[in-house]
Amino acid sequence: MAASTIKNAELFLNLASPLRLKHIRSSLSNSKYISVCSVCGSIHQRNFSKYSSAKLNQRVNIDKGGKPSHKGWHSIIGLEIHAQIKSASKLFSGAGTQFGMSPNTQVSLFDAAFPGTLPVLNQKCVQAAVRTAQALGCHINQVSKFDRKHYFYADMPAGYQITQQRHPLAVGGSLTYVFQCSTTSRVERRSARLLQIQLEQDSGKSLHDLENGISLIDLNRAGVGLMEIVTAPDFTSGDDAASFVKDLRDILVTLGTCDGRMAEGSMRVDANVSVHRPGDPLGTRTEVKNLNSTKNIRLAIDNEIERQIEVLENGGIIENETRSFDAEDGQTIAMRDKEKLLDYRFLPEPNLPPLVIHLDDSTVPSESSSLFVTLRRNGSGYDNFCLPEQQRLMLETKYGVPLIHSVVLVRHGLFDLYEKLVSNHNCDTRATTAILKTSYISFLDDQRVDATESPVTIQQLAQLIHIFQRGEISSSSLSIVLNELSVSSQLSCQTIIEEKGLWMVSSNEVILAAIDEVLTKNPQNVKSYKKGKVNQLKVFTTKVMKILEGKASASHIQSLIKDKLDKY
Amino acid sequence: MLRVACKRLRVFSTRLDCLFNFQHCAKDFKPAALYASKVPDKPTVDSIDYDSLPELPEIDLALVEQLERISLVEFNNEAGLLRLREAVKIANQLHLVDTDGVEPMDTVLEDRECYLRSDNVTDGNCVEDVMSNASKVEEQYFVAPPGNIPMKKRDKDHLSNILGKKEEEDEDS
């Protein structure tokens, strides 16, 4: 969060020809700069310094798979996810939605709430929400309505947000996601219910300049379409909720309805957290607002659970309140506005007639000049892709990839590549999984490219996998070859391996020489092995590996060492 | 609460319809009345039986503070509080309207479908227009007072005095 906010802030500063804004830059370093959550309209103080990793390590991790943890307390979490809809123009106006533009340039008179302007709904936003709802198995209300949710805040010029409170676009549905524990390698499938999906407007952004006692308002984001996805309270821990959000993000990105860039604020999550004793009624919930990375979701929720348990154990009571998460301290902080004091005064939006989703083309009025959205899509070829869960299932059933690996492969968009490598290029499934999930992903990360923009062709990759599966190259050499391929793409894998001398050492003589060297240098360890300390074998193996630069099979070395020592 | 309010609205609009029809007929017979307003010639005075209405809700200090917060209007004197009580009293008359079997209505356009436009950028890039009404501007940003500053915690003693006094009077009468 901190990092992303810095990025945003810098972006703002750069764009704003910052003569007058120098004080802001200086106050950045003084940590007096404040970022504002514009959706809930409250201030979250943040220090714009780097995340302290020491503090991160203080985090609590309590997921025991829903089992009572923490001295017999149960925690329950529900999420509200605000996903920005990927559209060229805003939800109700024709202004653009590009991120990081010069302040107040992507604003129409409607977005600035000029009197006499009226909302005109964007068909693409409706379509995106309908597609998302269909993918999540929701029931789509063929008639939904818009409401005004009132609050006074400078980044919401109309004084209200147009949303769908009473008759949302879609209700129900569920999502099967893969729970990933952040401390152990545990993975399992879980399912969470959804309550509703609604369309609503995003708010503008405020930059607070405390030194001068002013807020600077940029309305570029005001009026961008949001899908608010509300889940049932089906989560038990920070890991659980974060895993869900990761999977939901993958689905939205696959559908193309949201770009999923959490660092740019394209997805923001509010978490409702409560704790109770098993058997007791649910506890009072608090809401942690505006979490915009999966890491922050996990940390904030776990921290809030800890805090609530501590308060209750000490005989206190939990107040129904809104809190924000300070990524710097890893703590949640109460916000000034208590929830019970807020009155949103929901009213029907009189300027927008009911939104109708047609079953198919037949019920669409022919004389209307309006665009329309239908539930059944004919012949547009939209649904020719697999959702992440289907991809994982394919990998598991067809190629025997274990869940823990299929999650990684699918998340990095390597499903198509995997299919092609195995079915068109005859690659071994295990070798392909091994290479893709480690060396290849870190290679892509280093190159800062997507799976689709990889500089290495599929033929080269297949060649490399074949060499690897024959055991002619070690896994540590893979990244060297990949990097070399990206620089000089015309070379073949063999040439590179030859040039860099990366072939596995196959002659036993070289290995035995290395073993001799190690054994003579470490007589102490040999002695302790003789006394029965078998784990010394591993010590020897790593030392030998180091001499051979990793170009030999570890198990082979170990067996050779064992032979040698037993003959001593 | 909202639904009830909508029901009332619907009934009122039905009443208005009757009024329009009446005017329509009147046009044929009385050309002089062509430009007459929609306001009836004579005031209709209904006597309201206040006893049949729900009792006025208790207006305590917390409620006044809440109303001040959300309406940005201060009720900082006796007149203000009286006005509030009267407003609630007047609004209570709505309970007399019979809304049985009337579907709540959101908008007079509710038999229409929401118009959908195509996703094209047709607007924006008009910073000057957008900021033309702003009293204070900095580097293309609007300048606003910092954050959501809650109303100052004023001394509410005078209010509790008024409230206390009113209640005593009520009891007396």
UniProtKB/TrEMBL annotation, chain A:
GO terms assigned for molecular function: ATP binding; glutaminyl-tRNA synthase (glutamine-hydrolyzing) activity
Cited SMART domains: GatB_Yqey
One biological process term in Gene Ontology: glutaminyl-tRNAGln biosynthesis via transamidation
Record's subcellular location: Mitochondrion
Predominant place of localization: mitochondrion
Keyword line: ATP-binding, Ligase, Mitochondrion, Nucleotide-binding, Protein biosynthesis
One GO cellular component term: glutamyl-tRNA(Gln) amidotransferase complex
Entry EC number(s): 6.3.5.-
Domain Asn/Gln amidotransferase: from-to ranges: 416-565
Catalytic reactions of this protein: L-glutamyl-tRNA(Gln) + L-glutamine + ATP + H2O = L-glutaminyl-tRNA(Gln) + L-glutamate + ADP + phosphate + H(+)
InterPro entries (UniProt xref): Asn/Gln-tRNA_amidoTrfase_suB/E, Asn/Gln-tRNA_Trfase_suB/E_cat, Asn/Gln_amidotransferase, Asn/Gln_tRNA_amidoTrase-B-like, GatB, GatB_Yqey_C_2, Gln-tRNA_amidoTrfase_suB_CS, Gln_synth/guanido_kin_cat_dom
Catalytic class of the enzyme: ligase
Gene3D superfamilies assigned to the protein according to its UniProt record, in alphabetical order: 1.10.10.410
The keyword Ligase is annotated on this UniProt entry: yes
Keyword Ligase set for record: yes
Function (record text): Allows the formation of correctly charged Gln-tRNA(Gln) through the transamidation of misacylated Glu-tRNA(Gln) in the mitochondria. The reaction takes place in the presence of glutamine and ATP through an activated gamma-phospho-Glu-tRNA(Gln).
Protein family (similarity comment): Belongs to the GatB/GatE family. GatB subfamily.
PANTHER family: GLUTAMYL-TRNA GLN AMIDOTRANSFERASE SUBUNIT B MITOCHONDRIAL AND PROKARYOTIC PET112-RELATED, GLUTAMYL-TRNA(GLN) AMIDOTRANSFERASE SUBUNIT B, MITOCHONDRIAL
Subunit annotation: Subunit of the heterotrimeric GatCAB amidotransferase (AdT) complex, composed of A, B and C subunits.
Record's protein name: Glutamyl-tRNA(Gln) amidotransferase subunit B, mitochondrial
Classification of source organism: Eukaryota, Metazoa, Spiralia, Lophotrochozoa, Mollusca
Automatic annotation (TrEMBL), chain B:
Biased composition (Basic and acidic residues): 152-167
GO terms (BP aspect): glutaminyl-tRNAGln biosynthesis via transamidation; mitochondrial translation; regulation of translational fidelity
One Pfam family, short name: GatC
EC numbers: 6.3.5.-
The organism's place on the tree of life at top rank: Eukaryota
GO annotations of cellular component type: glutamyl-tRNA(Gln) amidotransferase complex; mitochondrion
Keywords of the record: ATP-binding, Ligase, Mitochondrion, Nucleotide-binding, Protein biosynthesis
Catalyzed reaction equations: L-glutamyl-tRNA(Gln) + L-glutamine + ATP + H2O = L-glutaminyl-tRNA(Gln) + L-glutamate + ADP + phosphate + H(+)
A GO term, aspect molecular function: glutaminyl-tRNA synthase (glutamine-hydrolyzing) activity
Main localization of the protein described in the UniProt heading: mitochondrion
Subcellular localization(s) per the UniProt record: Mitochondrion
Location of the region described as Disordered in the Swiss-Prot/TrEMBL record: 147-173
Known partners and oligomeric status: Subunit of the heterotrimeric GatCAB amidotransferase (AdT) complex, composed of A, B and C subunits.
Function statement: Allows the formation of correctly charged Gln-tRNA(Gln) through the transamidation of misacylated Glu-tRNA(Gln) in the mitochondria. The reaction takes place in the presence of glutamine and ATP through an activated gamma-phospho-Glu-tRNA(Gln).
Stored NCBIfam families: gatC (TIGR00135)
Family: Belongs to the GatC family.
Protein name, entry field: Glutamyl-tRNA(Gln) amidotransferase subunit C, mitochondrial
